[in-house]
Amino acid sequence: MKLRGGVAKYMQLLASGVTNQLDLIIVTGGSKNPIHIPKTKVIFLDLNLSRWFYFKKEFTEILKEEQPDLIHINGIWNPQNALFQKVAQKLGHKVIVSPHGMLEPYIMNRNSLKKKIALSLYQKEAIKNANYLLTTAESELEQIRTLGFTVPAAIIPNGIDISEVKIKRNWPEENSEVIKILFLSRIHPKKRVGTTNRCY
Q1: pTM as predicted
Q2: Between the CA of residue 51 and those of 26, 56, 80, 120, 197, what are the distances in Å?
Q3: For residue range 74-132, what is the model confidence (pLDDT) as tens digits?
């Protein structure tokens, strides 16, 4: 995975929580502006699909060199992730897959033809062959089960860093007509934030 976006932030927070207990190694695509992840070994690869026939050898060399106890694949739909999983499991490694919401209806309906082709070629097999699935919410797990995947799974919400959270003391009186809502996320149709008065 590339060190950018929500998954990158998740990895950054995960690293801060686990690197005192274990050695974390991240294998990812190159980035012009990679985020900093302390106490973590990051291996950057050129994951351009034009280099597809080099990936298997590179993945094998990394796995044999690092000898991980567990492999955590973050994100789906990239064929590189599915290939890494396949190489790892062939070498006898256990693999956890985190879809990160990428099987939710909104995502499945976007470029749906491409998703169907990907499922047929590699993604369905990769999910079915995972040793474990890691989801962040009950609704995500329910959707995975609706799609017919029966792989053992757990629900573990994403961690957050509250070290810089400030407590607001001067809230309006209860009978105030002013209602303020803090929405902490990127603005995206998937988040269902709009200008209607409907509450989701």
Answers
A1: 0.80
A2: 20, 10, 10, 22, 49
A3: 999 999 999 999 999 999 999 999 999 999 998 899 899 999 999 999 999 999 999 99
φ and ψ at 2, to 5 degrees? -85, 140
Residues in the chain: 200
Question: Residue holding tokens 């693999």?
Answer: 95
Cα 84 to Cα 174: distance, rounded to the nearest angstrom: 54
Rg (Cα) of the chain, in Å, rounded? 20
Distances, alpha carbon 9 to alpha carbons 47, 116, 161, 166, 177, in Å: 20, 28, 11, 20, 36
Which of 2-11, 124-133, 165-174, 189-198 is least confident? 189-198
Extract the tokens encoding 45.
């690869």
How is residue 29 annotated by DSSP? E
As given in the structure block, the two tokens for residue 63 are 């796995």
